[in-house]
Amino acid sequence: MFRPMLAMAGMALVVLLTVAPAADRRNAVQNFTADDYIQIQQLYATYAQALDKGEGEQFSSTFVEDGEFTGGRGAGRGAEVRSPTKGREALTKMGSNGGTRHFTANLLITPTADGAKGSCYLLLFNVRTTPAAIVETAIYDDTLVKTAGGWKFQKRVVWRDDDDITPYRPKPLPAQSQEK
C-alpha cells in the first residue's frame, strides 16, 4: 500500500514541476504590458546613447547594481577568455569613453517568469574616423529585470559575428551559391 502511494506522490510531483513553470510563463506573458515593451525599448536606446557619448553614470544606470556585461571576442582572439565586467563602478568606467555609434535593430523581447529576455542586432561604428567605419557586427543577448526604478539589464552578452564560439554563426552558403 505504501509503494503505490509513493509512486502516485512522485507522479504528482513530476506533473507539478512540469505544469508550474508553464503557468509562470503564461502569467509573465499575461502581465507583460505594452508599457513594458516601450520601457525596454527606451532602456536599449538609453544604453546605446549613453555609451556612445561617454556618459558612464547614465550607462551604468541601465544595469542593476550587480549587473554584468560580457564583451565579444574578435577574429583571431579565440584563445582569450571572456570575463564579464561586473558591478556599478566597473560599468561606469567602461561606459565613460564614447566615440562610437551603436545602431541596434530587430529588438526581440520575450517575457519570462523572472522578467524578460531580449536580443537585437548590433552595428558598431567608429566615429573617430572619417568616414565612420563599421568595426563590429554582433548580437546582444540580454537578461532583463523589472526593478523599482524600471527595467534594467541584469546581464548582457555580446556575440560578435566573427567570434568562433558565437551560437549565432550564419550557416554556410550552399556550394553552388558560392561559385556565382
Structure characterization notes:
The chain is α+β, with helices and mostly antiparallel strands. It has two domains: 1-31; 33-167, Nuclear Transport Factor 2, Chain: A (Roll). 37% of the residues lie in helices and 34% in strands. The protein contains five helices and six strands, in the order αααββαββββα. The protein has helices at 2-31, 34-53, 56-60, 88-94, 175-179; strands at 63-70, 85-86, 100-112, 115-126, 133-147, 150-160. Strands 2-1-6-5-4-3 form a six-stranded mixed beta sheet. The radius of gyration is 21 Å and the shape is globular. It starts with a helix and ends with a helix.
Key traits:
single chain, 34% strand, alpha+beta, 2 domains, Nuclear Transport Factor 2, Chain: A, 6 strands, 180 residues, 6-stranded mixed sheet
CATH fold label of the largest domain: Nuclear Transport Factor 2, Chain: A
Treating each run of at least 4 consecutive H or I residues as one helix, how many helices? Answer: 5
Give the uncertain stretches in residue-range form: 8-20
Distance between the termini: 73 Å
Query: So, CATH architecture of the largest domain?
Result: Roll
Structural class: alpha+beta
Strand order of the largest sheet: 2-1-6-5-4-3
Helix content: 25-40%
Tally of DSSP β-strands = 6
- What do the pLDDT scores average to? 86
The global form is globular
- Summed up, the domain count is 2
How many whole angstroms does the radius of gyration measure?
21 Å
CATH class annotation of the largest domain: Alpha Beta
What is the strand content? Answer: 25-35%
Secondary-structure element string: HHHEEHEEEEH
Q: What about the largest sheet?
A: 6 strands, mixed
